[in-house]
Amino acid sequence: MLDPLTLFQYDPQIDQRTVHDRVMVITLGSYGDAGSAQAQFDEHLLNTLTHRTIGTFDADQVMDYRGHRPPIDFDRDHYDNYEPPVMTLHEITDKSGSPFLLLTGPEPALQWERVVAAIDRIIDELDVQLVVTAQSVPMPVPHTRPVGLLKVATRSDLLPGNQPSGSFRMSASFLGMMTQRLGESGRDVIGLVARVPQYLAEAEFPDAPIALVRGVNEVANLDVPLGDLEQASRLARGQIDAQVQQSEQLSQMVSALEKQYDTFMADHSLPMSEDQIPNADEIGQAVEDYLASLDTGNDGPNPAGPGPADRGPQTGPADFGNPDHPDQPEDPGEPKD
């Protein structure tokens, strides 16, 4: 392995010996960033809270430019505004005055082991005690129900009451591989994965970053406000509902997903007395069990969704199940690369 110390460089104005942050949040993109959840999450934190740059990774060493081409403008007779990929470590101060780290950027395409080794070194140097990853995946769930979070951890006692999900083999993401490697090194890592409706995978879906903010606050004991995300959620929900109402096909599919979701919840007889109302983990686990029980549906065409964001090539599935059989959503078992 090449020396991981040469992959990351602290900002010249930063003396790393003075930085001691308990939590590091990592949102390096994976699975196409369903619902633009990671992008919105990062933008919200950086636009809402005080922050400074701690350092940057040499992204040029770990990116595959042919696989993920950066944007550039052609202006009549010349090129302009080339945007190289950037992997940046920020220090952010939450609403209560507690600092934490945020590592943002695209998912590394090359030298995964070396990137993890560099992150592990940063964890040591900055006294990080807990790493939290935040990402999203497309799933056959309706937008009219709460966004659930799949939670994973390097130690089960990091997530009290969290129930394990089913087992299956899948294509690895960098965050998944990193979680395993850091766990093998004795690090505490909690992973949060927002479930985004498949038919909104390529659109901005503010409910997903809202779920991630709440999840990060809960597991890391931070105080990040929701701020403008709540207004963005109301506006997006109105636009989505309007477009669904205009399409009989989409209306039938959303209704089918709602029915299956509600039927599953009712069949599991979740307690509803005041002292036994299920918490978010219990509801999320119930949904996870349901999704694992779905039969595999047939691939169908990709009907027009509500306002896909222009974010370049998307790698996550964005179709809306099987339009010929709306009662057969696609199998959520393995996210697509």
UniProtKB/TrEMBL annotation:
UniProt keywords, alphabetically: Ligase
Family annotation (SUPFAM superfamilies): Cgl1923-like
Region (Disordered): 292-337
Bias (Basic and acidic residues): 322-337
Protein origin, superkingdom: Bacteria
GO MF annotation list: ligase activity
Compositional bias segments (type: Low complexity): 297-313
Protein name, entry field: Predicted ATP-dependent carboligase, ATP-grasp superfamily
Organism: Propionibacterium cyclohexanicum
Lineage: Bacteria, Bacillati, Actinomycetota, Actinomycetes, Propionibacteriales
